[in-house]
TrEMBL record:
The chain crosses the membrane at residues 35-55, 168-187, 225-248. GO terms for biological process: carbohydrate metabolic process; signal peptide processing. GO terms for molecular function: serine-type endopeptidase activity. SUPFAM superfamilies: LexA/Signal peptidase. Residues 196-208 have a biased composition (Gly residues). Keywords: Membrane, Transmembrane, Transmembrane helix. This is Signal peptidase I. Residues 190-219 are annotated as: Disordered. It comes from the Bacteria.
Length: 820
């Protein structure tokens, strides 16, 4: 039984202490501090715990995703499910290549995928950014999809990482004060809250040392405080290191304005109706245009003389119907090209494919165009416009291309003036065609249709022997050539032995004509294989059959997929593996080319067997690759070696190449078009061509059909030449068919060099502006398909410090579009 000390009075109750003047302050300070620390630690817990489920966190470092995501927020992301499509419209975490970064070092970024390109890449943008990101995104670059936002918890780490110490110091003082108030500032269970040595107080005669009548001892309180501070320090350190690789683009727009409405990243759709092959008098030209995001601002309808790059605008209606009247009597008779250009309210534009027509307000002769390439029997139609009651003798003539030596193809044609051209009676080659109408002493000629290719010879094709026994994913390849119109495609096919049906494995349009095919999709047994080549004229050829090849997937197989000839930054390494006994793991290894010093880059236990390899961790040079499959029994199977792939992380390299249409026809090289080659750093102009300082310099742009270089129809190539010197910009594969088969076109051009700043880094941009056609104008083609050009620089160009450029190819960045 406890007794009161003599001369003392009972202490106040706990309730009385709390509701005293001093008690209220301590109570509120302790309550607020504990609430603050509870929220802080809860947010930190939300940011850390999902890691147990495979999610990973990233601290946001800039405001390009505002107002929903702000600097200092932690975004938690999960890996993409390989079986699911890329989440267009969602925020993703992805690896940004070194060439797109101001530091020249690959980083992790978080942006929203706003649209998908036709080539399988994706366009990304920050919600508050005025523009989309300049570099398209591939699925392989995506490291996760944003799933959870934890607001503000990464701010201390962000301040520490960025050296912003004043707010970090203020936060630290506030937090330490909160820890002290929460742990040490509470009132005692009894008495007036004033503690005494030995744990007693004015209201307690207890003799238990080191306690406060059942409260935690001082060392326990100190341990609690240290634990809280340690947890908070861990959050700060993690936020400043582990998560700090994420960053947003620095260029932002007014967040409130740009986020208030749905962003319009897609150009409008527009089409132009053909007025017919021949027009006269006044005709109505009509276009249709739509844009579901921001609406149509206007549609311009234009015309130009055939082959001209000078367009005249007929009208620019701002609302539907988008049409206007064209008084054709105001222009000379002849061939014309029409187009419509739609502009939406966000400023994006789209241009229609050219529509051809002939203006004929006086008598004229028009010969139908049979196309660039013909074979067999072809029909040629002649039209007499505004012939009146006159009597005409009509014939069709031909000449070897450019020779201007005309011979009769069809004579004394009667209405409707159709000529049948048996091209099999002609030697393969290019011909010019024209129609002639004679009335009395008056002879009228049609426009010449130039460079029509006659090709009645099938291409040659050879299947590369795939081997006697096939397992897993195997490579099938063929070689093909065509001396006239060029190879259009090669299809690789298989047939089960004893059946009559051939099935396509793949179709290749470009060199090399090859593909990888998963033989596990076939039943085990014997098969025949062949290649079928088709040229641009439609002639086909079949290779010798590789017969009775065995597909046997009853044993393990593994193969290394080709990561590419040049490897830069972080690249995906992928293997294909199959084993009836199961797969424990697949190891992907590399070694300096020609050595046996193999290093495991990753070990994957579940498919798909792919991983990311940071090539900046090894020296530049040639490397071999292989994959090793491990079965549950311990048996290993090693793939064939993929040899001599070059790691190249040179600081100076080709960063981008872009083509801009001037005032001419979209998809066709003509005067006013601009081609720009951008390096990753500033270069010495004198290394581009001797004695050059970057000022305007006359050069010759040479366009060669891909067949001249063994690259096929869809790989026409551009390079630059200069009288009395060389231009060391390398070559540009347009990935398009801009020149007719086996033809060369040259342009007078002007080359200039300027310094541009990209993401804070000064770079040299070499621009080439096309002038008039110097030779081969009739060999130009208009390309309607979109593609990404590939520039192969040379090592002859050096930086200001004398460092040679990488020869690694640079692929055109940005959304997939028609060039020129």
């Amino acid at each position: 039984m406890k007794r009161e000390r003599p001369g003392s009075s009972p202490g106040p109750s706990r309730t009385g202490a709390i509701f005293s003047v001093d008690g209220w302050g301590l109570f509120l300070a302790s309550l607020a501090s504990r609430l603050y620390l509870g929220i802080l630690l809860s947010l930190a817990l939300f940011a850390v715990v999902p890691a147990a489920f495979g999610w990973h966190g990233t601290v946001v470092q800039s405001g390009s995703m505002e107002p929903h995501i702000s600097p200092g927020d932690v975004v938690l992301a999960s890996d993409l499910d390989p079986s699911q499509p890329v989440p267009v419209g969602r925020v993703v975490q992805f690896r940004s290549p070194a060439s797109a970064e101001p530091s020249g070092v690959e980083k992790t970024r978080l942006h929203r995928i706003v649209t998908a390109n036709d080539d399988g890449t994706y366009v990304t943008a920050g919600d508050a950014n005025a523009d989309v990101d300049s570099t398209p995104l591939t699925r392989e670059q995506i490291t996760g999809q944003a799933r959870l936002l934890v607001p503000g918890v990464g701010l201390p780490g962000l301040w520490l990482n960025s050296g912003n110490f004043p707010p970090l110091a203020l936060w630290s003082v506030i937090t330490l004060a909160a820890v002290a108030a929460a742990v040490f500032g509470g009132v005692s269970p009894r008495g007036n809250g004033r503690e005494y040595p030995g744990g007693g107080d004015t209201g307690d005669g207890g003799d238990s040392p080191g306690t406060d009548d059942g409260g935690p001892p001082p060392f326990a309180k100190a341990g609690t405080a240290v634990g809280i501070i340690a947890a908070l320090c861990t959050v700060v350190v993690l936020g400043a290191s582990v998560f700090s690789a994420a960053a947003f683009t620095a260029r932002t727009a007014n967040a409130a304005n740009s986020f208030a409405t749905a962003a319009d990243w897609s150009p409008p759709s527009v089409s132009l109706s053909s007025p017919g092959p021949t027009v006269r008098g006044t005709v109505v030209l009509s276009a249709e245009a739509t844009d579901p995001e921001s609406g149509i601002r206007n549609v311009a309808i234009q015309y130009a003389a055939a082959g001209s790059s000078t367009w005249a605008t007929l009208c620019t209606p701002v609302s539907a119907p988008y049409s206007c009247a064209w008084n054709t009597t105001a222009v000379p008779d002849g061939q014309y090209t029409l187009r419509a250009i739609a502009t939406d309210n966000s400023g994006l534009t789209s241009t229609t494919q050219p529509v051809s027509t002939a203006v004929s307000n006086t008598f004229s002769v028009v010969l139908s165009d049979p196309g660039e390439t013909v074979r067999g029997t072809t029909s040629l139609a002649v039209a007499l416009n505004n012939a009146g009651a006159g009597l005409y003798t009509v014939r069709v003539e031909y000449s070897a291309a450019g020779a201007n030596k005309w011979n009769t193809l069809c004579l004394n044609l009667l209405s409707p003036y159709n000529c049948t051209w048996n091209t099999a009676a002609f030697t393969n080659g290019s011909y010019d065609l024209r129609a002639v109408a004679v009335s009395g002493l008056t002879t009228t000629y049609s426009a010449i249709i130039a460079d029509v290719m006659v090709d009645n010879t099938a291409p040659s094709v050879t299947l590369t022997d795939p081997g006697a026994t096939l397992r897993g994913t195997s490579t099938f390849a063929a070689t093909a050539s065509d001396a006239d119109s060029g190879v259009a495609q090669v299809q690789l096919q298989y047939q089960r032995t004893g059946t009559s049906t051939w099935t396509a494995m793949c179709t290749a349009a470009d060199v090399p004509y090859s593909c990888r095919f998963d033989t596990t999709t076939l039943a085990n047994g014997t098969y025949n294989f062949r290649a079928v080549a088709t040229d641009a004229a439609g002639n086909t050829a079949v290779s010798t059959v590789a017969s009775t090849r065995t597909v046997d997937n009853t044993v393990a197989s593994v193969s290394m997929e080709d990561p590419g000839e040049y490897l830069t930054g972080t690249v995906p390494l992928t293997a294909s593996a199959n084993s009836p006994a199961g797969i424990s793991s697949v190891r992907i290894q590399s070694a300096p080319a020609g050595t046996a010093t193999w290093t495991t880059r990753c070990t994957i236990t579940t498919g798909p067997y792919t991983c990311a390899w940071n090539t900046t961790t090894v020296a530049d040079g040639l490397y071999d690759f292989r994959a090793i499959l491990l079965e549950p029994t311990g048996r290993e199977t090693t793939s064939a070696t993929l040899a001599s792939r070059r790691v190249d992380n040179s600081p100076l390299r080709g960063a981008d190449v872009q083509a801009v249409n001037g005032t001419g026809t979209a998809g066709r090289l003509d005067a006013g078009d601009v081609l720009t080659f951008t390096y990753s750093q500033q270069v010495n102009p004198g290394s581009v061509t001797s004695g050059w300082n970057g000022a305007a310099l006359p050069v010759t742009l040479r366009l060669r059909d891909g067949n001249l270089l063994g690259l096929g129809n869809g790989a026409d190539t551009i390079d630059l030449q200069r009288t009395g010197g060389t231009v060391n910009l390398g070559t540009l594969n347009t990935k398009g068919n801009f020149a007719k088969s086996r033809k060369t076109v040259t342009f007078n051009a002007t080359m200039t060099a300027t310094t541009v700043t990209v993401n804070g880094i000064p770079r040299t941009a070499v621009s080439v502006t096309l002038g008039s056609v110097a030779s081969g104008a009739s060999s130009l083609r208009t390309v309607s398909t979109a593609a990404s050009m590939v520039w192969s620089p040379t090592a002859a160009v050096t930086s200001l410090a004398g460092v040679p450029s990488s020869t690694a190819p640079a692929t055109e960045t940005g959304a997939l579009d028609r060039d020129f």
